[in-house]
Specification:
The structure is a homodimer of 336-residue chains.
Chain A: E1 2-7, H1 16-28, E2 32-38, H2 40-44, E3 53-57, H3 69-75, H4 80-89, E4 95-98, H5 102-113, E5 123-125, E6 127-129, E7 135-139, H6 149-165, E8 173-177, H7 188-198, E9 204-209, E10 221-223, H8 226-252, H9 255-263, H10 265-274, E11 282-286, E12 292-295, H11 301-316, H12 319-335
Parallel strand pairs in A: 1-2, 1-4, 2-3, 4-12, 7-10, 8-9, 8-10
Antiparallel strand pairs in A: 5-11, 6-7, 11-12
C-alpha cells in the first residue's frame, strides 16, 4: 500500500475539500491509504468512515499569510503541515500533499524532509495544459530566484524523469524560456544554460522557447530561473482569467451573445476546465528526499483528488529513486 | 503641420498595409503630412495620390532577420529605415513609424536619432489592453536586459508623462511587476526599485503587481527589466492566442457550439479586437531625442493608422520635450 499524508488544514476550503478529495481518491485508486492530519472534530464533520482513511489529530494550523515560515515550522510541532511532513521524513508515509502556505511548505520540506543528497537547488514544478490537450512541465516557479546553469541542468533532468514516468512521454524535450528563439538570445544566464543544455546527453534540448508559444510549445518541459518561471505562470493565469471575464462581458452585452452563451454552456465549461489548475492537481517539489506536492490554496476536492493521484503515481513509479540514483552516480564519478 | 516619416518597407505586409494605413491617417487626422520611405514603384501600386502623402524613394530593405543590425544601419544609407530615421534626425520630419526589424530599429534610433541627453537607458513601451476597456503601459519590453534602479525611475517617469499627455490619465500610477505583492518580494533589483519608487515624488507608486492581475492591474504603468517585461508581453500574447484557439476548438466540437459561435460572431470579433495589438498601434521607444514608434511586424493597415495617430499625438502634446526639460533640470541640479 502506498501511504499518502494529506495536510487537511491548509488552503482556502479546509478541511472540507481535502476530506472530499481523499474520499474520492481511495474510491478510485486501489493501492493507496490516506492519513489526514488536522483537527479531528473538524475533519469528522465531512468524513464518511473508510478503512483506508485515517485521521491523526493536529491542533495548530500555519496561517496562509505566515510572515516567518521557518520560525513557524520550527515552533509548531503540532501543526498539521509539520506533523504530515514529519510522518514522511520518518518513512511512516510515502508522500505528502498540502495546500498550505507555499513558503512554509518549502521551508518545512527543507528542514524536515531534507534535500536529496547532491541535488543542489530544489524546484517547484507545476504542469500546465497545452492547447493540443497535452501537458507541459513549467519550472522553477518559485524556489530559487537566482540560480546557476548546472543546477538548472539537474532540475531539467528531474523533469524529464517525471515527464517520462508520470506523464508517459517517451523522449521528453526541454526548452529554455527566452525572449527570442535564436541562440545567443537573453541574459548571460540564458546563454550559459543554452550552451550547457545543447551539449548534454541527459535529454533532448529544443533550444529557446519564446512565450508567444507558451501554450503550444515545441517541447515538454519549459525551464527558467525561479523569478522568470513564476512570472510566466502568473501571467498565464492572469491572462486566462482576464480573457475569461472579457469573453463573458462580451457575450452578455447582446441578446444573441447571451443565447450563444447558453447554447455553448458545455463547450465553455470544457474550455474553462482545460485551463484549470485543478485538472492537474498540484506542483511537485523536485530535489527533496521524498515527494512533496503543493496543491493550490484555492483547490477544491477535485484538485486534491488529482494531487493525491499524482503523489501515488510518483511513489509507484519510483521517480525520486531514479533521480537519486543518477545523482549518486554523478557524484561518485566526480569522486574518482 | 506635423510631419510623420513612415518606413514603408518593413514588416510582413509591406508596403501595402503601410500605404493603406497612411491613406486612412491623412483622411482622419487633419494636421499631419506623411512621407513614405521605400520603393516608389511598389508604393505607387497601392497609393492614391494625396497632397499630404509624399514618397521618398529608398532602394534597400533591411531584412527582418538581419543578424548584424548595427552593421546594417551603418552600411545601408539607402535603406528605407535608415532614410526615414535620418529625416527625423535632421528635423525634416517630426517622428517615425516603422515595423521593420526591432533590433535594427533600436540600433538605428541610437546611432542616428540618438539618446535624449541625460536619459541613460531607452525603453520599449507598448500599451496593453486591460479588461475594463482601459490601457496600461508595459515596459521595458526589450531594450535593456540588465538595468539599474535609477534608470528604471527615469523610464517610469517618462511613462507617466506619456500616460498623462497621450492616454489622458490624470495621476498615472506605476506598479512594479513582481512575484508577490508584499514589500521585500523578488530579486535584489526588485527590492531596490521598490525602495526607490516608494520614496520618489515624481509619481504615485502602487507597489508590487503580481501578473495574476496583469489584465486588470491596480495601476496604469507596469514596469520591470527588459528581460522580464518582454517575457510578460510574450506570455500574454501566447496565452491569448492559445486560448482563442482552444475556445474555437471547443465551440467547433459540438453542433450547439457551432450555432453559438455563429450567433456570437460579433461578440467574439469584439473580444478578439480588444485583445489585439493593432488597436494600440505600436510601442514607443522612450528616451530618444525624437519619437520612434515600433509597429508590430504583423501590423495591418489599421495598426499603421494607429501607429501614425500615436506619433502625431506625441508630437502634438510635446511629450518628449516635457521629459527632456525634466531631465535637464535634474542634471543641472546635480551640477550644483
Amino acid at each position: 500500500m502506498i501511504k499518502i499524508a494529506v495536510d487537511a488544514m491548509g488552503g482556502d476550503y479546509a478541511p472540507k475539500e481535502q476530506v472530499l478529495g481523499a474520499m474520492r481518491a481511495v474510491k478510485e485508486i486501489d493501492d493507496i491509504e490516506i492519513i489526514l492530519y488536522g483537527k479531528e472534530t473538524e475533519i469528522n464533520k465531512f468524513l464518511k468512515p473508510n478503512k483506508r482513511i485515517k485521521i491523526v489529530n493536529a491542533d495548530y494550523i500555519i496561517p496562509m499569510d505566515e510572515k516567518n515560515p521557518i520560525g513557524a515550522i520550527r515552533r509548531h510541532k503540532d501543526a498539521s503541515m509539520v506533523m504530515a511532513l514529519d510522518s514522511v521524513a520518518t518513512k511512516e508515509n510515502d508522500a505528502i500533499v498540502s495546500s498550505g502556505a507555499t513558503q512554509a511548505l518549502i521551508a518545512g520540506a527543507h528542514i524536515i524532509i531534507k534535500r536529496m543528497k547532491g541535488f543542489k537547488r530544489t524546484a517547484i514544478a507545476p504542469v500546465i495544459p497545452t492547447i493540443d490537450g497535452g501537458q507541459a512541465i513549467l519550472l522553477d516557479t518559485g524556489a530559487n530566484l537566482q540560480i546557476k546553469p548546472e543546477h538548472m541542468l539537474q532540475q531539467a533532468y528531474f523533469a524529464t524523469i517525471y515527464a517520462n514516468k508520470i506523464l508517459g512521454i517517451k523522449n521528453p524535450r526541454v526548452g529554455l524560456i527566452n525572449i527570442g528563439t535564436e541562440k545567443g538570445k537573453g541574459r548571460e544566464l540564458d546563454q550559459e544554460v543554452f550552451e550547457l543544455f545543447a551539449n548534454t546527453d541527459l535529454f533532448e534540448f529544443s533550444g529557446n522557447i519564446e512565450p508567444k508559444t507558451i501554450l503550444e510549445p515545441n517541447c515538454d518541459i519549459l525551464i527558467s530561473d525561479g523569478f522568470t518561471a513564476n512570472i510566466v505562470m502568473k501571467t498565464i493565469e492572469g491572462t486566462a482569467k482576464g480573457m475569461g471575464k472579457l469573453l463573458k462581458k462580451n457575450l452578455m452585452s447582446s441578446f444573441s451573445g447571451k443565447i450563444a452563451g447558453l447554447l455553448a454552456k458545455k463547450n465553455l465549461q470544457n474550455f474553462k476546465k482545460q485551463m484549470s489548475a485543478e485538472e492537474i492537481g498540484g506542483a511537485v517539489i523536485y530535489g527533496l528526499q521524498k515527494p512533496v506536492i503543493k496543491a493550490q490554496g484555492a483547490s477544491k476536492s477535485y484538485g486534491f483528488f488529482n494531487g493525491i493521484r499524482q503523489a501515488a503515481n510518483i511513489v509507484r513509479n519510483q521517480v525520486f529513486e531514479t533521480v537519486e540514483n543518477y545523482i549518486k552516480e554523478e557524484s561518485s564519478d566526480k569522486d574518482d
